[in-house]
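REQUEST
  id: r-88c1
  op: predict_structure
  target: Methyltransferase domain-containing protein
  payload:
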Amino acid sequence: MLQLPSTYSDLEKYTEDLCSLIDTPLVRQITGGIHVNDALIHNAWDGLPAEWTEWWSRWPDHRLAQQDLIDRIDEDGLGDDVGSDAAVGEILRTRPKSLRSWLAQLKALALTRTQRPGPTVTLPEILETRMKTKKIAEVARATRLIRDVCESRRIRRVVDMGSGQGYLSISLAHLFPDLQVLAIDGSASQITGSQSFADSLGIPHSRLTHMVHWIDGSSALADKVADWAAGDGCILVGLHACGNLSEHMIRYFATMPSLDALAVVGCCYNHIVPRSESCPEGFPISAALRSRNVTLSPTALMTGCQAPNNWPRPDPHASSVFGRRRLYRAMLEKAFHDHGIRLPGGDGSERPAWGTRKGDMASFTAFAHRAMDCLGVDTAQRPADEQLRAYEDEYKDWEGRIAILWTLSVLCCKVVESVIAVDRYRYLAEQQDVQDVDVVPVFDVKVSPRNLMIVATKKRRQNCNV
Ligand SMILES: C[S@@+](CC[C@H](N)C(=O)[O-])C[C@H]1O[C@@H](n2cnc3c(N)ncnc32)[C@H](O)[C@@H]1O
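RESPONSE
  id: r-88c1
  status: 200
  body:
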């Protein structure tokens, strides 16, 4: 069962409210309707409720206003702690009611990420030395959970899709010698690294098989996995299965008789492929969300990858170039737009990127020169320095506004991720053979922001080897 946010008891109502929220004009605008880079072209600031923009303009430092917004969606429910001085305290007391309730709605509709307590495995040093602290914590918890599902379902085979360097598959094979593991990844170099790590531990190939294969939902891969399973029931696992890899896994689980259980944590939602004529299998995958015509723009999907509550809190005494860089980026788009400069990808989701060097942030003119050099803008088309300075003059007070617009889009991260998780949950719940589905916040969210694991099992089969 899906653990709904505390104010909900009905999945239908929750799904409806969640899908309605992401379809409101405001959320559509801030999650891609107007990309923050295009904010000056389309005057996105004026698209926000006037009482909100008026209120933000009263903050002495926009970074505090940004942090205040981020705190409002924190699950641990931090107080109004950006306001240690009296002036900020006074501003906080006058937060517009409509903003307060919109922020409360964002929080109330987000699935919980508070880690669900559960046992972990103490990994031996020989495994830990190859992993970073974050990965150690993830593998310690995931191996225990997967092992428990295996024991309760009498499963002896694990298929790890998107196995990467093999931290999960190798740990499972090393810790539980009665398991046979198949590690599949589309990258030959990842599989080579995983194989050599496994060999260094002396894990026999008969217990840990590696396979280089692109995972695309094809029946060719399903046949190979079924051959390897040899009629035994398997658990399909994936740790940070990027983008639509998670969706392919969910479909394999639903359709392949040899897959008896599933445990998958997604990530990199920006790699999700939306449903279209050329990709009928794309997002959303559930009938429940398809019937509501749910769509998420590329910017919204990118937003789903953010974890603003894990960002360092701003130091109002230290200067930061982040806000200025964002403003300059938006000013550049405006200058290009005004001067008819078109770049490949500039009108779509994929925006050209370049690096700035020391000195490029000294003024908008320096920044724009660097950008135009990197992007190969024709000299004849380039705005004159005088014109660039006019932009600097016109938008000198806009850093805070652009920063707030950016923060607003990031603020939707949890509802976007909830939409994706609900879609996956509902797709599985719609399958006849599936018995239980759960969305488990499996890791400490402060360490691993992508911590929602979809765990599912099938109804017992009559003729199987388990
Ligand atoms: C984020 S890494 C996670 C690796 C590993 N599970 C871990 O937690 O350390 C994702 C891995 O999935 C692989 N991958 C992503 N999409 C894939 C696909 N469609 N088919 C095969 N491999 C894929 C990548 O090559 C990469 O190794």
